[in-house]
From TrEMBL:
NCBIfam families: YhcH/YjgK/YiaL family protein (TIGR00022). InterPro entries: NanQ/TabA/YiaL (IPR004375), NanQ/TabA/YiaL_sf (IPR037012). It comes from Mucilaginibacter mali. Signal peptide: none annotated. It holds the Pfam family DUF386. This is YhcH/YjgK/YiaL family protein. One of its GO terms (cellular component) is cytosol.
Length: 148
C-alpha cells in the first residue's frame, strides 16, 4: 500500500507500466468536474463515486481485495478513512473469488485505519485488503483499475 498526495504521483510511475498512463490522465483532467460513472480513456479505466461515508462496521462488510487489478483510489472531495489489513493475515473469506468482478471479500476485521484528504491517493495492491468509504460526510472519489 502507498499513500501520498496526487502532486507526488510522478514518484510512483516506475513501479508499474500502467501507473504512468493513469497518473498522466489524472493530471490532464479537472477531477472536481467529473460526473459519477465509469470511464475508459486511452486505456485507463476508472470510476467516479460520490456518496455519504459510512461507519467502519458498515465498510468492513465489504472488506475486499483484487487479484487482477491494482486500485489507485483518489479522494476528490471530503474526508475518507479506510480500513486495511494484509491479505496474508486474513483467514475468513466470505465466499469464493468472483473473477468477473475481480473481488474477494473477507469477514476479517481491518487491523488499521487511515484517512485521506482531498488531493491524496492510496494504491492498493492485491495483498492489500481494504474497506473504503468510511466517513461522516459526503465523499467524492475516483478509483483507477490498473491491470496486473
Amino acid at each position: 500500500m502507498i499513500i501520498d498526495k496526487l502532486e507526488n504521483s510522478g514518484q510512483y510511475v516506475a513501479l508499474h507500466p500502467g501507473f504512468k498512463a493513469a497518473f498522466d490522465h489524472l493530471a490532464s483532467i479537472d477531477l472536481n468536474a467529473l460526473e459519477v460513472g465509469k470511464y475508459e480513456v486511452d486505456g485507463v479505466k476508472y470510476a467516479v463515486m460520490a456518496k455519504d461515508g459510512v461507519a467502519p462496521e458498515v465498510a468492513a462488510e465489504k472488506f475486499e481485495c483484487h487479484n487482477k487489478n491494482i486500485d489507485i483510489q483518489v479522494l476528490i472531495s471530503g474526508v475518507e478513512s479506510m480500513g486495511w489489513k494484509p491479505r496474508n493475515d486474513c483467514s475468513q473469506p466470505k465466499g469464493e473469488y468472483n473473477a468477473e468482478k475481480d473481488v474477494t471479500f473477507y469477514a476479517d476485521k481491518p487491523e488499521m485505519q487511515f484517512t485521506l484528504n482531498a488531493g491524496e491517493f492510496v494504491i492498493f495492491y492485491p495483498n492489500d485488503v481494504h474497506a473504503p468509504m468510511i466517513g461522516d460526510g459526503f465523499i467524492k472519489k475516483l478509483v483507477v483499475k490498473v491491470a496486473i
